[in-house]
Amino acid sequence: MRDIIIAGNWKMNKDALQTAEFCRELKSRLSDVKAEHLRVIVAPAFVLLPVAKGALEGSRIEVSAQDVSSQAQGAFTGEVSAQMLASLQVAYAIVGHSERRQYHAESNELVRDKVQMLLQHQITPIMCIGETLAEREAGETEAVLESQLAGCFDGIELQTGKELVIAYEPVWAIGTGKTATSDQAQQAHAFIRNWLRGRFGAEIAANMSILYGGSMKPENCEELISQADIDGGLIGGASLKADDFVAMVHTGISALSKGK
């Protein structure tokens, strides 16, 4: 059975006090969550990772970084290495987010290098891929996804499929209030899983969780997660509100109870 993952990408939001208070609230409100195949993750800014981990100690809620350096160490001012994250026992790191690709010109090859660094340190990459509105309207969605998958997985070998998570994020649906329909999202997720099957084999493709990352919120979470190949969400704005985030965690629990 694949894990259902509810992951909150906080981006550049919440200070130290807000992070501690929010994490303590999540810990309290989700203290009775024991679903075996459910993973709940929050991704604060780099400087707040220790704050989040401290506030969540003793809970099942895990912490993710929002990025990682492609370099192991050295004269790279402002960068944070996989070894640094591992020393904090950070379990996940987001790589290749569309905002990193857009604002920092990150290539598929750079994302691949970051994935390799994370895997070397037993940190699970949450690897983001997705098309822009112009690419979707031009009928290029599958070609874009195939190019991103081929570039980001170039030279990467997997053993089980559970050591990496993919997040499909239609760029046109991030922060815009627009959301892909459940059918559109499922089609993209099915294409990704089929590509994985061809590249890594049926078992790894079946094991890997593929998240939807385009304006998931409580109102559409259930319909999206009910799709065959959608295994949770990488959630932006809605993850900053405790009520919304907790509601989506419970939606994930409900999906598991229905045999998702």
Quick recap:
By secondary structure, the protein is an alpha/beta fold.
The largest β sheet comes out as: 8 strands, parallel
Kindly report how far apart the N and C termini lie. 8 Å
The low-confidence parts are: none
Class inferred from helices and paired strands: alpha/beta
Number of strands: 8
Short key terms for the protein model shown above:
single chain; 260 residues; alpha/beta; TIM Barrel; 11 helices; 8 strands
Question: What this model shows, in words?
Answer:
With 260 residues, the chain is α/β, with parallel strands linked by helices. 44% of the residues lie in helices and 14% in strands. It is globular and about 45 Å long.
Record the SSE blueprint.
Elements: E1 4-9, H1 16-29, E2 38-43, H2 49-56, E3 62-65, H3 82-87, E4 92-95, H4 98-104, H5 108-120, E5 124-129, H6 133-137, H7 141-152, E6 165-168, H8 182-200, H9 202-207, E7 210-212, H10 218-225, E8 232-235, H11 242-257
Parallel strand pairs: 1-2, 1-8, 2-3, 3-4, 4-5, 5-6, 6-7
